[in-house]
Amino acid sequence: MNHEDARKAAQAAIRQVAPEVEPEDLEGSARLRQDLELDSLDFLRLVETIARSTGVEIPERDYPAVATVRGLITYLADHG
What we know:
The chain has 80 residues and is mainly α. The protein has helices at residues 3-17, 40-54, 69-79.
């Protein structure tokens, strides 16, 4: 998956899980749990949504790598 496809997939998944998040809040350095206020259940739903929409499974050991929007995009680009 290229970087642009990964960005679109990440943003679509975040909007699906947290529709209240504004597009301008999806900048790369935004932390999913702290800045976008995803709770643990939202985060797990995000991981499941990503897996369904892209086929990329994110194992628990890799959760720190996807703690930010940029990290999630990079992870998808590298593993998709």
